[in-house]
Write a structure and sequence with these properties.
There is one protein chain. By secondary structure, this protein is α+β, with helices and mostly antiparallel strands. 19% of the residues lie in helices and 22% in strands. It contains 5 helices and 7 strands. The radius of gyration is 21 Å and the shape is elongated.
């Protein structure tokens, strides 16, 4: 027998905050969220505990369930020790700010020591840069271009990225999530 749910909420609404088994979010940026459909599937597969619920429900002819607003995994997922080197993580490490002029527009990433001069694509040599600064610097060394990063590049720990992610809370935060999220309201992104 298959169960077909009839949602009484708009499609895409009511995401569930996903917590690890220790009740910490899996990630802050992007915030670890599942659609209500994925959260219900995980409940039925016995992979999560429901921590908090919305007032909205889903129904089948013989079953009704309130939508989970916060779920915690039953199995602890060990956080990665070192974050993956990705464009997004470089931008997050640099707080989505050009390391030369401070702009937040049209970001790219720049090799501090250009690849043409032997620079590698690594945490220690790449910074967020706006397109105009990246073009102006070109394939010059920082001293030749008279352009030095405001913060020297470094390999961040997962905690560094989580801390920076807290500076950029999403537009939507349900009240049931607030006991599990720690946004730093004193720091400006």
């Amino acid at each position: 027998m298959s169960i077909h749910f009839q949602p009484v909420v708009p499609h895409g609404a009511c995401p569930a905050l996903v917590l690890n088994a220790d009740y910490r979010p899996l990630s802050y940026y992007p915030l670890s969220l599942w659609s209500w459909q994925d959260a219900i599937k995980a409940v039925f597969l016995d992979r999560v505990n429901i921590v908090s619920e919305y007032d909205q429900s889903v129904r089948s002819p013989s079953f009704e369930m309130r939508l989970p607003s916060v779920v915690s995994l039953k199995t602890y997922i060990r956080p990665q020790r070192q974050p993956a080197f990705t464009r997004f993580n470089v931008f997050l490490r640099d707080r989505f700010t050009c390391q030369y002029c401070g702009s937040r527009e049209d970001l790219t990433f720049d090799h501090v020591i250009p690849r043409s001069k032997g620079g590698l694509t690594t945490w220690d040599n790449v910074v967020a840069a706006c397109s105009p600064c990246n073009l102006r610097k070109g394939d010059q060394l920082p001293a030749n271009a008279h352009m030095f990063p405001q913060h020297m590049p470094f390999q961040p720990a997962i905690q560094d990225l989580h801390q920076n992610g807290r500076l950029f809370p999403p537009n939507y935060l349900h009240e049931s999530w607030m006991d599990y999220l720690y946004w730093d309201s004193e720091l400006e992104p």
